[in-house]
């Protein structure tokens, strides 16, 4: 009885392995390089330029503060020997003030820029996903994988250009 159960289990496992292999052979698998598509999109450069313009005034203000701080530091190093103690103190206070202003402005600015970049990147990735879905449905793909996860792929399964064309149509 025990041997009969082992044979039955072994037969069931072998049968399921053969069925799953046959089912896998029938699936059409496509590959896309999402990163390459993202970098090829003209919208990515446009978005980067728009974000730069959006934060230009704040970036210019930070750059001006950095330049002022550097000028004050250079002046202190250059003229320290000829300055009175009061002049040195005033210049050191200006340097500290500039540093404090920079610390208050730089980190929030960087966070805001990063947040906006993430928002826009996610919008583009959603468009790419929508295009992948459309191409996969049109071409009859069952599974679509991202290219960096693949060691080897036949060029006939790479659908990156079709997806790029589809994204261009969407936007």
What does this structure look like?
The protein is mostly helical and 171 residues long. The protein contains 6 helices and 2 strands, in the order H-E-H-H-H-H-E-H. It has helices at 2-26, 34-40, 42-54, 56-79, 85-139, 160-170; strands spanning 29-32, 143-146. A two-stranded parallel ribbon has the order 1-2. Helix 2 (34-40) crosses helix 6 (160-170), helix 3 runs antiparallel to helix 5 (85-139) and helix 4 (56-79) runs antiparallel to helix 5 (85-139). The chain is rod-shaped. The N and C termini lie far apart (67 Å). The mean pLDDT is 83.
Key attributes of the depicted protein:
171 residues; mainly alpha; rod-shaped
Q: If you compute it from the alpha carbons, what radius of gyration comes out, rounded to the nearest whole angstrom?
A: 30 Å
Count of alpha and pi helical runs: 6
**Spatial ordering of strands, largest sheet:** 1-2
Question: What about the largest sheet?
Answer: 2 strands, parallel
Characterize the overall form: rod-shaped
The secondary-structure element order is HEHHHHEH
Fraction of residues in β-strands? under 5%
Euclidean distance between termini CA atoms: 67 Å
Sheet/helix structural class: mainly alpha
Question: Please, what is the average pLDDT?
Answer: 83
């Amino acid at each position: 009885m025990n041997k009969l159960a082992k044979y039955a289990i072994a037969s069931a496992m072998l049968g399921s392995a053969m069925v799953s292999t046959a089912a896998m052979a029938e699936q059409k698998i496509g590959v896309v390089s999402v990163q390459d598509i993202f970098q090829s999109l003209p919208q990515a450069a446009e978005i980067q330029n728009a974000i730069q313009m959006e934060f230009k005034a704040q970036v210019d203000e930070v750059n001006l503060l950095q330049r002022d701080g550097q000028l004050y530091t250079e002046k202190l190093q250059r003229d320290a020997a000829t300055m009175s103690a009061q002049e040195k103190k005033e210049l050191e206070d200006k340097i500290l003030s500039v540093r404090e202003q920079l610390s208050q402005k730089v980190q929030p600015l960087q966070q805001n820029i990063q947040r906006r970049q993430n928002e826009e990147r996610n919008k583009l990735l959603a468009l790419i996903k929508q295009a992948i879905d459309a191409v996969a449905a049109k071409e009859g793909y069952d599974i679509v994988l991202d290219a960096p996860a693949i060691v080897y792929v036949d060029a006939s399964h790479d659908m990156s250009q079709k997806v790029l064309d589809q994204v261009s149509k969407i936007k």
